[in-house]
Specification:
- There is one protein chain.
- This protein is mainly alpha-helical.
- The chain has 4 helices and no strands.
- α1 packs antiparallel against α2 and α2 packs antiparallel against α3.
């Protein structure tokens, strides 16, 4: 991957997965295996979604503004459909959807906090 912020992307993905593993083990330690798997599945869905967005963004380099916008919007539509498919799959498997959503929320909070920290370092 030749993203300009490849190290930042790897760091964010690693942090997301660490929080997912921590949440999984915390829930398993209180006897809630299904909840733990559901939580980790939500984290994993958002980590894959973020990685997929980064790859799509990388492919837009060198394109015109209009082509880049079309590519990003098309990618967003595909990622949204994939997200809905992931939620349907989670439901069909029997995962607890509230815990899947909690995992998704935690993964996005990690991205938000990491971005704030990254922008804070770059603005000084």
């Amino acid at each position: 991957m030749s993203l300009k912020n490849d190290a930042a992307l790897r760091s964010i993905l690693r942090q997301q997965l660490m929080f997912g593993v921590f949440g999984f083990f915390a829930l398993v330690s209180i006897g809630q295996m299904l909840y733990g798997i559901s939580f980790f599945f939500g984290v994993l869905m958002m980590a894959v979604n973020g990685w997929w967005l980064a790859k799509r963004f990388e492919k837009t380099s060198g394109l015109s503004v209009e082509s880049s916008q079309r590519s990003l919007y098309a990618g967003a539509a595909v990622r949204f459909i994939a997200l809905i498919a992931g939620l349907v799959l989670a439901h069909l498997i029997g995962f607890h959807l509230l815990l899947v959503a909690a995992g998704m929320f935690v993964a996005q909070a990690v991205v938000f906090i990491s971005a704030l920290r990254l922008f804070g370092k770059n603005s000084v």
